[in-house]
Design brief:
Oligomer: single chain
Largest sheet: 3 strands, mixed
Helix content: 40-55%
Strand order of the largest sheet: 1-2-3
Shape: elongated
Structural class: alpha+beta
Number of domains: 2
Number of helices: 4
Strand content: 5-15%
Length: 102
């Protein structure tokens, strides 16, 4: 699956001829541009709406990976807060009595 949909490839020389204003105008209208040097992609020009879409997709994928990892490693064992506090020599009361750092 390609991240950039129907990206138009152009060389650095072509991009230079078109100028920044031309590249920005295309990206602003939804075109995804890939700039190549010696036929290898070196840069991409995308509109801010597309960049936002890609960033949101990346965040969703990170969340999904976390959920899948937690699901795959969950043994069903749970530890209560009181057990954790006790393991560190505390109780809910001792935590409540701790002065705030101001």
């Amino acid at each position: 699956m390609a991240i950039l949909r129907d990206a138009h490839e152009l060389s650095v020389t072509e991009a230079t001829r078109r100028g920044v204003a031309g590249l920005v105008a295309d990206a602003e209208h939804g075109a995804d541009l890939v700039v190549t040097r010696h036929h290898r992609p070196v840069a991409a020009v995308v509109g801010i709406a597309r960049l936002t879409e890609l960033e949101e997709a990346a965040a969703d994928l990170r969340d999904l990976a976390l959920v899948l990892a937690r699901t795959a490693t969950d043994a069903g064992r749970r530890t209560s807060l009181d057990d954790v506090l006790r393991a560190y020599g505390h109780t809910r009361e001792s935590i409540a009595d701790t002065p705030d750092d101001d």
